[in-house]
Write a structure and sequence with these properties.
mainly alpha; 10 helices
């Protein structure tokens, strides 16, 4: 990707948009009722994907980089599409969405209270946890539709993490090297704490998906090392 601007990222998002349009939606008629533990878990992740992104877009526009702001708007559009796909997955199994969940309220409150750099660090906690969750749902889902939806969301999340790393690397570059290490070490510690909460909260679903709480937490924390290095 372009090391100085966001033109390549914009083209990447646009390519993904065209591919989604050409692919169309999954066949929702193939849906089956989700196991109660997985249903509750998907409902909670759907709430997390369902924000309007207005605060992040406003902060990106205030940063004064038009290309970055455009890329952020495309990122937010993909997150909204994730919420739509998960809502339709639930509906295909006759399950409703939920209005809110305490974990999402905490993340949203933290993000809105912070500047762009710290908001992205908080957002990256959710994104890295989501990588492992959607991989578990794709690989361990009990029906083809669940696996397909999870795979589509995961493919987007695998692009989102490098995108945010790109911005955070530029944002942290002015700091002395020890300060960058301190910031990313603190981020990893916060990620570990959040991951433990998610693992417990979604424990029944993770066990049903063949992952388990301990393995989920260990693999998320292990994956954060190279991501922290990329931020630095």
């Amino acid at each position: 990707m372009d090391s100085t601007g966001y033109g390549d990222w914009i083209r990447d998002f646009e390519t993904a948009r065209r591919e989604r349009a050409g692919q169309g939606d999954p066949d929702w008629r193939t849906g089956v009722p989700l196991h109660p533990a997985i249903r509750r878990s998907v409902q909670r992740f759907q709430v997390g994907e369902d924000g309007d992104g207005a605060e992040l877009i406003t902060k990106a526009e205030a940063a004064g980089d038009a290309e970055y702001a455009s890329a952020v708007r495309m990122f937010v559009a993909e997150e909204r599409n994730h919420a739509r796909l998960l809502a339709l997955l639930l509906a295909s199994g006759d399950a409703p969405t939920i209005a809110s969940h305490w974990s999402d309220r905490i993340f949203v409150t933290l993000r809105r209270a912070l500047g762009l750099r710290l908001e992205l660090l908080v957002l990256m906690i959710a994104e890295v946890v989501a990588l492992r969750y959607y991989r578990a749902l794709r690989d361990g889902g009990e029906d083809a539709l669940t696996r397909e939806v999870a795979g589509r969301v995961l493919a987007d999340e695998e692009r989102h993490v490098p995108f945010h790393c790109h911005r955070l690397r530029r944002a942290l570059r002015p700091l002395p090297a020890p300060a960058r290490v301190l910031v990313t070490s603190g981020w990893r510690a916060a990620l570990a704490a959040a991951c433990l909460v998610v693992a417990v909260d979604h424990g029944p679903a993770l066990r049903r998906l063949g992952v388990g709480c301990g393995r989920f937490a260990v693999e998320v924390v292990r994956s954060s090392g190279p991501i922290a290095a990329a931020m630095r």
